[in-house]
């Protein structure tokens, strides 16, 4: 997500945040621990509460708490479980049908019916926002409400092996058709005021990317059960302040993103616990195939392949991230079904300047290649600057590249990257669901999340075929072929993969329960 898939600083608003938090009792000791409110801190940023306008971890963190989905993953599990739906199954090979629970309603009192579900999915496709999750719905040909309790999805291909999991992703939140416009996004303040939420929480006080107050929704009937605590999310501009506040007990949980040095330091603290969960985060460089250096497609591919020969992932892993991230040699990270090491197989596991020079010379590319490389200082953790200084040094060593590093804060970054402003740029990805397809289709299918002008008919065909292949061995072979194509074409350059990390006070329970392969951080699991 997530990865595919996004500035008012916390420090500047500390007085305001403190007064609000004191008013709601968050962070204070309470004799009845079951009623104690919690404060969660993060450096992630929200692009949009509206599901049609966001496809990023910061927005997903809010959506997970306030919206219902047809299906969902319980804490600690990757088994699909009914949420707003009573049941879902294939009626025909290309028709997937969900029957809704009765009596569901939004926080504003409006009924939640199959019509809202069909509306929710269709508006994502119709709006097709460049920061939205429309690419996840490429397999959906049509969605319709047959009646108040039945919604039917007509799929492009029979026996789709991934569509049920798509219902749990950024494309899956159910919105109120009487509140959300069909043809444009609803801004955050209007969404909060409308209170059209049916998830475990509703939102009280809200100041975008400063704080969000999540109040237990007593009418929620879904996968997560009854939430144990109200939660306030506090947003940080600086991970150093996030680390200091969780260590001092000013917040209860720090989730995304502390620096490797901070994590290492906090492991030695007697006041907090460092919780780790299954990996799957992918960090990578995206090339805009339209604006990157090169006079034609062959030269552009040569430039991309040269970068693959020159990067030193081991150095970045050990020196910048102290092993909290490990080298990634494929678009599908190690540990996922069907993962290969296609980049290691093609380019080796150590820099090869001679091979990089040859591929550039063979394509007639003049050197040094001037590459503008954009990175983000406030979304992917405090070590991004060191990571990209290392990438710059590695690419420039030997004189084949001149790298111009530039940085932009996330809200601007997420808008400009889809407007062809960056020839090459940093992204990170948390998967929407635990399947290798989610590292491939959102990146390389038509109308993909990257918006990098990559589209290849052979890749599209391969992705479509693996998605409906019920034979495990055959599907893995197709996944391997797709990874080999990525390594040859290099539309992205995978760098690192890492585990999920959250740091919490000793009195906080439930953190490890929600750090599971579904990659959903559920406030409903947390308590003191």
UniProtKB/TrEMBL annotation:
Subcellular location: Cell envelope
UniProt GO BP: peptide transport
Signal peptide: 1-22
One Pfam family per UniProt: SBP_bac_5
GO CC annotation: ATP-binding cassette (ABC) transporter complex; cell envelope; periplasmic space
TM stretches of this protein: none
Record key words, sorted: Signal, Transport
Keyword Nucleotide-binding part of the UniProt annotation: no
Keyword Nucleotide-binding: no
InterPro entries: Peptide/Ni-bd (IPR030678), SBP_5 (IPR039424), SBP_5_dom (IPR000914)
GO molecular function: peptide transmembrane transporter activity
Stretches assigned to the Solute-binding protein family domain: 79-448
Sequence similarity: Belongs to the bacterial solute-binding protein 5 family.
Name of this chain's protein: Peptide/nickel transport system substrate-binding protein
Organism in which the protein naturally occurs: Aeromicrobium choanae
């Amino acid at each position: 997500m997530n990865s595919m898939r996004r500035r008012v600083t916390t420090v500047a608003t500390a007085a305001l945040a403190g007064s609000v938090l004191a008013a709601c009792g968050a962070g204070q000791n309470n004799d009845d621990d079951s009623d104690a409110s919690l404060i969660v801190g993060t450096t992630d940023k929200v692009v949009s509460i509206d599901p049609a306008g966001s496809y990023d971890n910061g927005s997903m963190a809010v959506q997970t708490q306030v919206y219902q989905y047809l299906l969902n993953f319980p804490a600690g599990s990757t088994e699909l479980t009914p949420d707003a739906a009573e049941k879902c199954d294939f009626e025909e090979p290309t028709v997937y049908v969900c029957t809704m629970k009765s009596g569901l309603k939004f926080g504003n009192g409006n009924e939640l019916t199959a019509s809202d579900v069909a509306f929710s999915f269709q508006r994502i496709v119709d709006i097709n926002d460049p920061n939205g999750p429309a690419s996840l719905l490429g397999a959906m040909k049509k969605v319709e409400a047959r009646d108040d309790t039945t919604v039917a999805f007509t799929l492009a291909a029979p026996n789709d092996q991934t569509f049920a999991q798509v219902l749990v992703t950024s494309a899956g939140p159910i919105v109120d058709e009487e509140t959300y416009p069909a043809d444009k996004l609803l801004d955050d303040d209007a969404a909060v005021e409308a209170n059209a939420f049916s998830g475990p929480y509703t939102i009280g006080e809200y100041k975008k990317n400063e704080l969000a107050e999540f109040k237990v929704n007593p009418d929620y009937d879904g996968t997560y059960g009854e939430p144990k605590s109200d939660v306030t999310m506090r947003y940080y501009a600086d991970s150093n302040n996030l680390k200091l506040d969780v260590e001092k007990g000013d917040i209860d949980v720090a989730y995304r993103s502390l620096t490797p040095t901070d994590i290492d330091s906090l492991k030695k603290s007697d006041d907090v616990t460092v919780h780790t969960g299954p990996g799957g985060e992918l960090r990578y460089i995206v090339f805009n195939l339209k604006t990157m250096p090169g006079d034609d497609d062959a030269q552009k591919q040569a430039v991309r392949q040269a970068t693959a020969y020159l990067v030193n992932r081991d150095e970045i892993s050990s020196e910048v991230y102290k092993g909290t991230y490990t080298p990634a040699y494929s678009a599908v990270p190690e540990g996922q079904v069907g993962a290969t090491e296609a980049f290691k197989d093609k380019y080796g596991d150590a820099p090869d300047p001679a091979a990089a020079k040859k591929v550039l010379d063979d394509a007639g590319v003049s050197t040094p290649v001037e590459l503008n490389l954009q990175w983000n200082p406030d979304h992917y953790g405090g070590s991004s600057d060191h990571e990209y200084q290392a990438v710059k040094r590695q690419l420039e060593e030997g004189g084949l590249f001149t790298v111009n590093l530039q940085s932009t804060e996330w809200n601007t970054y997420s808008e400009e990257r889809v407007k062809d402003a960056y020839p090459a740029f940093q992204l990170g990805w948390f998967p929407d669901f635990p399947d290798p397809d989610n590292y491939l289709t959102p990146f390389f299918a038509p109308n993909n999340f990257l918006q990098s002008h990559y589209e290849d008919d052979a890749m599209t065909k391969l992705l479509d075929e693996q998605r409906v292949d019920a034979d495990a061995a055959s599907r893995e072979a197709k996944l391997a072929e797709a990874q080999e194509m990525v390594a040859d074409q290099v539309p992205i350059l995978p760098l690192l993969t890492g585990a999920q990390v959250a740091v919490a006070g000793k009195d906080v329970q439930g953190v490890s329960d929600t750090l599971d392969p579904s990659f959903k951080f559920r406030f409903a699991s947390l308590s003191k």
